[in-house]
Amino acid sequence: MKHWQLIKEENGIVVAVFDKAGESANSLSAEVMAEFGEILDQLDKQPPKGLIVRSGKEAGFIAGADIEEFSQLDSAEKGRALVTRGWNLFNRLAAVPYPTLALVRGHCLGGGLELALACRYLLAVDESGTKMGLPEVMLGIFPGWGGMLRLPKRVGPAAALDMMLTGKTIDAKRAKKMGLADDCVPPRVMEMAARQLLLSGQPRRPLPFMQRLLAGPFKSIVANGARKQVAKKARPEHYPAPYAIIDLWEKHDGNALAAPEIIDRIITSPTARNLVRVYHLQERLKGFGKSSIFKAKRVHVIGAGVMGGDIAAWCALRGMTVTLQDQTLERIAPALKRAHALFTKRLREPLRIRDAFDRLIPDPNGDGVAHADVVIEAIFENVEAKHALFKSLEPRMKAGAVLATNTSSLRLEDLRTVLHQPQRLVGIHFFNPVAMMPLVEVVEADRADPAVVQAACAFVKQIDKLPLPVKSEPGFLVNAVLAPYMLAAMRAVDEGVSPETVDEAMLAFGMPMGPIELVDTVGLDIAMAAGKQLAGGAEAPRCLIERVEKGLLGKKSGQGFYDWSSGKAAKVAAGSVPAGLAGRLIAPLIDRVEKLVADGVVADSELADAGVIFGTGFAPFTGGPMHFRRGTE
To answer: Residue 558: phi, psi to the nearest 5?
Structure first.
């Protein structure tokens, strides 16, 4: 066989090792699954004492189905055939008379988890890379190979729906706690533990009585609750897949073949096609920096404000030793408090929280500069202040270290004039909130050193963000396209449209947040300053000027266009949305994207779409602003 190796052990156990030919990660193609069917044929003739399924790759168990094959589904018949193939194969695996075990080390996603769920036992290896999930919803589809049937029976319907509707992954310890994994063991004992568990004959941990009721007679209660939760985040006309998952579980016990019309509707939907496009765009961003051998261990951040402090915390969370500099310890303290909240939320285990906190070191004197592989300047937006800082930094930095600025509005060419090696300055521009926003713009000035730009991209990848190379122009890509969009929204308010109606028009379009609420969140004073720079000399909207003059600066001051005293925007009911309002508001944003591509600020329209989706949350189901315009012309 091309992708599988069968090892027959003396004790009667057979090990099926999956090592997909010519690929760095395992995925389930038609050929791979046909070969697995042949393995089951062989074992039908000579049943083993037990079967262990494991990966032969360093890079995890199975990443899921083969996305390329999914991209080629151009008819309802092909969609049904794909679902039938996996559903029948994994049902067959689940029904074999001998015990089966999936040894899960590294990522186990989508079809990979569906294969593991069809085994009698799932043994998870306790390592940071072990992650399990059913993220099909992120591609606009559903887990049709048995995930919707087996996951709720294993972990209970509420936990299963939460995983399937969000696409989130869980680690080995959590998998054991939930009942998804039968056990969770360190790598050194996994071989022995797998064989012991396989032959133990131990029954599965039964679902608690209440969970069995919710999976049976009270199914509709869980389903209705899930629909309400999904409705808060996604409209059915934009994202039909989560609603299909709930329907298929509630009405057909997770068997999509019992409702072929749902398969046809989901797999041939524009949303699924566009979300697969977004997946490919994301993979392209992940490719930047791959060619660089640069690896950062130590990071030094100057400026412990919201941006600098949160960048430092994120780097410490991702395993780096980080020194955080500001004028006094008192200025650094709020950043440490926010960092502790982030670590607690993300890491959950006291030891891991403490380790992350130990990696974040207050450094008022800047002693960390000499040891840092990456130095990030995140002080206030003032050319003279940054000049003074760069002059003092350059002689203290080690050779080969990356010098980066997090400026959001200043040109790198103006900032680097004081440097002896001006070509070493690069922009690494994060977005607020740092922990939530996946995109980071890597800004290249004229005549920059390409190796430095590559190293910056490699660093961004290293901290699990998506690097987007852009040229040094005011606002780069993301802020430059948001400015005319927010301006158009405020002009509509000047014309008498209520802020709530403007926001509702864009929420209905598919944006994650309305533009007026976005202005409030960014800060009206910042919107005013950015507008002056990015609006090409246009007069600021009246509604903005009036509020800034009164000190109503948005969320941070408790009042802007909305009242924020409760911590979130207090909105009255939106009026009926005028016809064409959304199109009118989105047009300046797309116009600006087109101009930035034409000017070479971003290399091509695909990267522009990727940047605007991952940097602004632009409705992913559209495939991005340029793709959207091409489809509507």
So the answer is: 90, -10
Question: How far is the CA of 581 from the CAs of 245, 500, 586, 620, in angstroms?
Answer: 33, 13, 9, 20
Q: Which of 269, 429, 500, 517 is catalytic?
A: 429
Q: Is 70 exceeded by the pLDDT of residue 447?
A: yes
User: Which two tokens mark 443?
Assistant: 């800004």
pLDDT digits over 373-420, tens only? 999 999 998 999 999 999 999 999 999 999 999 998 889 999 999 999
Per the omega criterion (within 30 degrees of 0), is the bond before 203 cis? no
302 and 366 in contact (C-beta within 8 Å)?
Answer: yes
Encoded tokens for 70: 């999914």
pLDDT > 70 fraction of the chain, expressed in percent and rounded: 99
Active site residue 429: yes
Exposure string (b/e) for 406-443, b if CB count within 10 Å is 16 or more?
bbbbbbbeebbebbeebbbbbbbbbbeebeebebbbbb
- Report whether pLDDT(206) > 80: yes
User: Edge-to-edge strand order for the sheet containing 170-171?
Assistant: 107-109, 131-133, 170-171
Cβ atoms 209, 228 nearer than 8 A: no
Q: Decide: 172 and 190 in contact? Cβ < 8 Å.
A: no
Contact 553/527 with Cβ under 8 angstroms? no
The H or E element that residue 17 is part of is: strand 13-18
584: region left, alpha or beta (phi > 0 left; psi from -120 to 50 alpha): alpha
> Out of 269, 274, 408, 472, which one is annotated catalytic?
408
Catalytic entry in 114, 136, 394, 441 = 441
What is the Cα–Cα distance from 481 to 607, expressed in whole angstroms? Answer: 14
Q: What percent of the chain has pLDDT over 90?
A: 88
- CB within 8 A of 566, min separation 6: which ones? none
- Position of tokens 């202005």? 519
Instruction: Inform me whether the pLDDT recorded for 448 exceeds 80.
Output: yes
Q: How many CB atoms lie within 10 A of CB 355?
A: 14
Give me the numbers of helices (H) and strands (E) for the chain, helices first please. 27, 17
| Helical packing angle, 478-494 and 524-534, nearest 10° | 110
What are the tens digits of pLDDT across the range 99-124?
Answer: 999 999 999 999 999 999 999 999 99
Say whether 88 is catalytic.
Answer: no
Work out the burial of residue 195: count CB atoms within 10 Å of its CB; fewer than 13 is exposed, 13-18 middle, 19 or more buried: buried
What is the pTM assigned to this prediction? 0.92
Check 26, 472, 479, 605 and give the catalytic one.
479
Q: Is 408 a catalytic residue?
A: yes
334 in Cβ contact with 340 (< 8 Å): no
Q: What average pLDDT does the segment 612-633 reach?
A: 93
> Is 441 noted as a catalytic residue in this protein?
yes
Q: What is the DSSP letter of 422?
A: G
DSSP state of 97: S
pLDDT of residue 409: 81
pLDDT bucket at 539, cuts 50 / 70 / 90: confident
Dihedral sign for Cα 533, 538, 539, 545, please: negative
| Residue 298 DSSP SS3 | strand
pLDDT in tens, 235-252: 999 999 999 999 999 999
Contact (Cβ atoms closer than 8 angstroms) between residue 257 and residue 165: no
Of the candidates 268, 271, 279, the one whose C-alpha atom is nearest the C-alpha of residue 68 is 279
